[in-house]
Amino acid sequence: MLNFRKATKQDASSVAKLMMLAMDKIVFDFIGEKNDEKGTLFLENLIQQENNQYSYQNTIVVEYDNQIAGCTTFYDGVKLEELRKPVLDILKSSYNQVINPQDETQAGEIYIDTIAVSPDFQGKGIGSKILDYLIEEIAIKQNNVLGLLVDFDNPNAKKLYERKGFKVVGEKMLMNENHEHMQYHPQK
Question: Which GO MF terms are attached to this record (predicted)?
Fold first, then answer.
């Protein structure tokens, strides 16, 4: 039985480890080195704080048999600049990294930043259930467009998104890697 709930500050360690599964390359680019432990700590710090892209406030935890099996982080695309600022500030002050990432989202969509499933729970359809949850709660009930980026090197993820009703609407660069930009539009 899956349980979806808002993340708390206490979930930061578990959520950070899951997020690293989904975005380790980007985190390594952010912090300037390929180090899983430092990358996880970077995310954990941000998850515990409020008002940033990776905050617990923007995260839903998925539990399977009372264990954290996955998570998803999403936010209103119009808020990207204000939510990104604390991330860039920490990168500059704590990692001596000054980066100018491209905008992965924009006004008019709720952006799904990450979907991650623990290796212990993969193959149980949890990623698909997370998408179903987001479509139901954000797109259908709130009548919002959902957006996400999919790596060209991940055709299986793209197929899943297409099965769920997402369509390619363009391409976007993120940390100098090109991605397909996909959106789900609720039926009028």
Answer: acyltransferase activity, transferring groups other than amino-acyl groups
